[in-house]
Structures are given as C-alpha cells and as structure tokens.
Protein: CBS domain-containing protein
Amino acid sequence: MKIKDRLEFANKAPPYALRGEEKVSAAIESMAERNIGSVVIVDYDMKVQGIVTERDLVRRLLREKLDPDTTPLTKIMTTNPRTAQEDDDVVEQLSLMSNERFRHLPIVDESGRLTNILSQGDFVAYTWPELLVLVRKKAKETLRPNTYTLVAILFYTLIVIAMSSIWQDFTFK
Structure:
C-alpha cells in the first residue's frame, strides 16, 4: 500500500520544520511542546537539508558539550537524510527504516520539498491492523488442516489408553 493511500497519512498534522541557522534551543523547545522526536531542516524553498532527532541532540550536542543557545541546527543535524515520496510503499519504507536504524522519514514531493514526515511509530500504527488480519488468516489456514491431525492423534491416544487398560484387566485376572 502506498503511503498516500493511508487514511492516517492524510490526517497527519503538517510537519515541523526549521531553517538550519535557527538555534538548537528553539528546536528543543518546540520538540518538547509538540511532543515530537525530530525537526526537519529545510531551506527557504522547503527542500530538505537535514534532520535533527533526539539522537542527534545526545550524540552531538550533549557529548560535545555545545551550547544550545548559540549552536545552529546545521552543526548537529544529520545531513542528507533518507526521504520517501507519497507513492512509495509503506511496508518497504518501514523495512528500510528498521534495517538502516533510523526512526524519522521526511516525505517529499518530486522537487524534494517537504510535505510530511513519518516516524516508525506512525508506520507501526498504519500497518498493525493489517498485520493482525494477516496473522489471524495464517493461523486459521495453518490450524484447520492441523486440527484434524491433532484430533486424530488425541482420539488414537485415548483408544490406546483405553485398550491398554482393558488389556491389563484381562491379563491380571
């Protein structure tokens, strides 16, 4: 299924983005207020230049003991982040995020302009209902043929136990 075909995608709030010259403190404040884990860094045409995530704050800002009030976002951002387009497959993008170990995926148009952002949490929420349906279907497909086998084994076991009990009664009398 394409990203744009998900109902949840259409209802998402616009992505939060800042220019690279903004200070890290502004991003931290906004991330905390909005309860989000990343800020996309864009130029004046809304083209993605980078992304600042909670991980970047820990790895670059805190570890290097930088001052958030004077440090520009360009100094700590991840440059050239992976992006996707609305026509891309949801599951393929989730797999890519999992394999390459990143949690935030900017969505861009054909010109590279930011249109949205999805997190791994979004993808899980989008794919979870479908995954449950698939699991139930597979369970039914797998259990039906095996149910008859299990019932047959159980029935056979009961017969063996019953015959064994009867046989013991005959042999000890």
Observations:
- Helices lie at 7-10, 24-34, 54-62, 73-76, 90-100, 120-171.
- The first helix runs from residue 7 to 10.
